[in-house]
Design brief:
This protein has one domain: Aldolase class I (TIM Barrel), CATH 3.20.20. Helices cover 50% and strands 14% of the residues. It contains 13 helices and ten strands. An eight-stranded parallel β-barrel has the order 1-4-5-6-7-8-9-10, surrounded by seven helices. The chain has a two-stranded antiparallel ribbon with strand order 2-3. Helix 5 links the parallel strand 6 and strand 7. Helix 2 runs parallel beside helix 3, helix 4 runs parallel beside helix 5 and helix 11 packs antiparallel against helix 13. The chain is globular and about 50 Å long.
Length: 304
């Protein structure tokens, strides 16, 4: 009962704007100072929560020691001022359980679990994978559906089954690009189960049909503006939300002209906030795309 109550309490807090944080690098290691400053800027802007070691945080290229370091720094710097989620998913169920248990011991508020990638499990395999992880932890869990990266889709009936069978699976980050999917999830799932947009550009349309927020890449750069967009949607002020959406849309699009997080780290480096360093197999942006992104940012800044 205590476990279910704890999950429900955090589940109710799963709404608003969460930033999928980049992991700053310098001289081959984690730039802790830059990471702390980035977190502080997020909190000052009123962010609901931060996601450490997700896709945007280049989790596949972090060592076990670095993953733990990033989580520890995020928890310490946040200091209960916002929620801290850790990306603990894997295409190995055993590995995902171990990572989630480690995140729980370190003190994260919740786990973000991406769908297993590369091995393309069936819907029954997906169900058993996520249930095994949920059974091994008391942490609230946000599922992460991103078929474009994982080549597998967590179907609404599987999400519904997981929500019914696992009381600590309380939310989903939906990055399948379909407004219809969000509507279907909202129809099938319990009212307390929350849906997030996994794409900045779809925050407005997803929230219009029942999503409660976004896990954002753009908020690394402009947390106040993304928070304002989400708040406008939450309050039902769709006219203001549409105005903000249109203003932000070119930026949302150009932050993905090359693989994430290359463009957002490049833009942050132009501010002097972090180094633009990414780890292979990612590499620096082309000159042409840097020129395009600079122009988009300049246009956006001129209208702020």
């Amino acid at each position: 009962m205590r476990r279910a109550q704890a999950a429900a309490k955090i589940g109710n807090m799963f709404r608003g704007t969460f930033t999928a944080l980049v992991t700053p690098f310098r001289d081959g290691g984690i730039d802790v100072s830059a990471f702390e400053q980035l977190i502080e800027a997020q909190i000052a802007a009123g962010i609901t929560g931060i996601v450490a070691i997700g896709t945007t945080g280049e989790s596949p290229t972090l060592s076990h020691e670095e993953r733990e370091q990033v989580i520890r720094v995020a928890i310490a710097k946040a200091n209960k001022r916002c929620l801290v989620l850790a990306g603990t998913g894997s295409n190995s169920t055993e590995h995902a359980i171990a990572e989630t248990e480690r995140g729980e011991k370190l003190g994260v508020d919740a786990a973000l679990l991406v769908a297993p990638y590369y091995n393309k499990p069936s819907q029954e395999g997906l169900f058993r994978h996520f249930k095994a992880i949920a059974d091994a932890t008391s942490l609230p869990i946000m599922l992460y559906n991103i078929p474009g990266r994982c080549s597998v889709d967590i179907l609404p009936e599987t999400v519904t089954r997981l929500a019914k069978e696992c009381r600590n699976i309380v939310s989903i980050k939906e990055a399948g690009g379909s407004v219809e999917r969000v509507s279907e999830l909202g129809r099938c799932l319990p009212d307390a189960f929350t849906i997030f947009s996994g794409d900045d550009s779809l925050t407005l349309p997803f929230m219009a049909v029942g999503a409660v927020g976004v896990v954002s890449v753009a908020s690394n750069l402009f947390p106040s503006e993304v928070c304002a967009l989400v708040r406008a949607c939450e309050s039902g002020d769709l006219k203001s939300a549409e105005t903000m959406h249109r203003k932000l849309l070119p930026l949302f699009k150009d932050l993905f002209i090359e693989p994430n997080p290359v463009p957002v780290k490049t833009a942050l480096s132009w501010r002097g906030a972090i180094s633009p360093d990414v780890r292979l197999p990612l590499c620096e942006m082309s000159e042409a795309n840097q020129t395009r992104l600079r122009k988009t940012l300049e246009t956006f800044e001129s209208k702020r």
